[in-house]
Amino acid sequence: MAVFRGITKLLNKYANYGLLILDEWLLDSLSEEEIHFLFELIERRYDSGSTIFCTQFGKKDWHTRLGGGVHADAMMDRIVHNAVWFETGNVNMREHLAKNSL
Asked: What's the pLDDT tens digit per position in 63-102?
């Protein structure tokens, strides 16, 4: 029961920020618990705060990386329809800077 209260407290904390930045979004595979947590977080933040998703993955890959099920459908629906997208291109700046420093 203490774990559930801890998760609820964490959800409430992150749901109430005016701006939440999720860096390295979907970098690692997610467990069912993590997918459910993200679903609850995105649901609570929907139309109440701004969220920035920083990722190396194109939006076409997000659904699969979110598990591909109904939670992924719901999350993508909430994210995609209220989003402003900034595509930064295909250049890996670390590689680019490393080549130029040689």
From this structure: 999 999 999 999 999 998 888 888 777 777 777 788 877 6
Q: Quick check: helix, strand or coil at residue 102? A: coil
To the nearest 10°, report the CA torsion of 87, 93, 95, 101: 150
The CATH number of residue 23's host domain is: 3.40.50.300
Contact 26, 67 (CB under 8 A): no
pTM above 0.85, yes or no: no
Residue 8 lies in a domain: no
Q: Do 13 and 44 touch, CB atoms closer than 8 A?
A: no
Looking at residue 40, its amino acid is E
Helix boundaries (H) for the chain: 2-15, 32-45, 59-65, 70-80, 93-100
User: What tokens were used for 43?
Assistant: 């649901």
The residue segments making up the domain with residue 95 are 16-100
Long-range contacts of 80-89 (CB under 8 A, 24+ apart): 82/46, 82/47, 85/59
